[in-house]
Specification:
Layout (H helix, E strand, L loop, with lengths): L1 H21 L18 H8 L2 H11 L3 H12 L29 H5 L7 H18 L4 H10 L1 H6 L8 H21 L19 E3 L5 E3 L2 E3 L5 H7 L6 E5 L5 E14 L9 E3 L4 E2 L1 H9 L4 E9 L2 E13 L1
Helix pairs in contact: 2-4, 3-6, 4-9, 6-7, 7-9
Amino acid sequence: MRNYAKITTIIAVLSLALSAWIIPQPSRNMDRPWKAPEMSVARFWTVWRWSPIVNRYTEMFDLDRALVLAVIARESEGNPFAKDGTGLGDSVGLMQVIPRTNYPRYNELTGPYGETDYDSQIYTGMWMLSNIIKKADGNIRYALAAYNCGFVSVDAGRCYAWGGYTYADDILNNIVPVFTAAIDYNWRPKSIKPVAKVQRSPAKLTLQPSQYWTYKNGILAHNYEAGGKKITSMSIGQEFDIVSASGQVNTYIVKSIRQFQAIQPNSETTDYLTMEGTPVSKEKVFKQTYGSSQLVLQTCIARDGIGTWGRLFILATMV
């Protein structure tokens, strides 16, 4: 019986050890519950690409990786060239830091290469977030609210409706779970959410000379004007007419649609990200788009309140 008890104990210990080895273990924060995440492919990869830099300083600042990536997603959508668009401050970069002379790497952030010094952007943002969390005595929700609009405004209840605790709750409830799943459970998004839901019409569209201007083998129009709205509404297989300045009418059919996010939305020389988040140069985009014999219709994609968030290219052939 004594030998049997020993054998039973050994088997039990080996079983526990084997189960711990087989079952995937979260890398950190074991108490974080699983939540089915929701995030578009483009947004996820645009932020996730900064993980190596975040990982480099996680232990130094004692910060949670998922939290830092969530702040990057909320502050800049992973765009290192982002600048404050509210007119309320001079925040810049991936974590929307307002450079101060007493901040680390101040010279790097404000120098001529500050917009491309991604390491300094994240380092400074993580340094600031770490200090704010310490000042908040470890209260992450309070610290995030203060990161957004400052301790004085949070305490006085003077944050904007989209800021303060609303900002903090969005990060903790909606964004952190996504990167928690990616880090602890190797989750990745499987589908792309549409950039914009538009009502597709099978009716033939007509672009008049006053609704566009030409560039090489392309037709360009602002997305907030009639021509751009018609281009935005087009779908593959749809026919449309182009009326030239001389009155000639040619009929085309849409063969393919290409969409890109602009890294610098308001720049005409910006590089791009594919909708899956892969960087691509402006030269490659325009060579592949305008390098064919097809007609190209181009306009901007409006998203998140930014009228020039991305670029839309419709490639068509004459019927």
